[in-house]
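Comment thread on ticket #2218

A.B. wrote:
> Attaching the input chain for the structure job we discussed in standup.
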Amino acid sequence: MAERRLHQPGPVALERHESFEGVGRRFDFTLEPGLSLNDAVARTLCTAKIKAAAVVLEGGAFRPFRYLMPALSLDDYHAAWYSEPFAPAGAIRLERGNVTFGERDGAPFIHCHAIWIEDGGKRCAGHILPHETVVDHPIRATAWGVPDVRMVSEPDEETAFTLFHPVACAAPVAGTGPRTVIARVGPNEDIVESLEAICRKHGMEEAVVRGGIGSLIGARYADGTKVDDIATEVFVTLGHVSARQGRTHLEIAMVDTRGNITEGQLLPGENPVCITFELCLEEA
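C.D. wrote:
> Ran it. Output below, let me know if you need it in another format.
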């Protein structure tokens, strides 16, 4: 992994995994047409007083639709960057996507990576712009959230990006539910090893990864295939963490700077984070 490390513009943060646990709650709901993606997700979760959540989206469609692709940095400062916005015409059919829900500047805010089908049948993936994209046909949503941990989007000194990170609420919230950890993993940390470290920190022997999105420095898959790229957009499609047994299973979908989509199980110890990775872990 030594050759797959990126120099970041700021000082290396001492804490490589930020995480706090809360009382987990699950919600199944529908994103209604006519709302921006940001507002459609936020309406249900804000009503339920959820401060941080991972959301899985399936089916339905968007119109209008705006998105970004991962890109190499052109400023000799940032480790990676992103493309100019794309605006494909017609109704965009969603295949699957993951959302991190939290806040930015005191208002509800989401971060979304997804795979979709464009008018004409082309399958694409990337980072959906949440305020510029509007729900056109109802979308199924499943959220795993907590009322007692905030996910706050703020400037990050190490990467020089504005990123989500978890913040503990001042007082715990009463209620019952599975122990649920909201986490963020920093750059150059192996994602599978980080998941196991987070579980050990919180005394969880086993956990299910609920959603999760971020970026990796390329990829090394369990079947022997690999992606040699720097900037990627990633979302988790399946994950189970076994902190003591070392049998963590993590499957992802990824798009690289050339628009190539790959999917599969990641090799442990071989997949460092590019900029950030946002996670929700539910104790199993």
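A.B. wrote:
> Thanks. Noting for the ticket: The longest strand covers residues 92-104.
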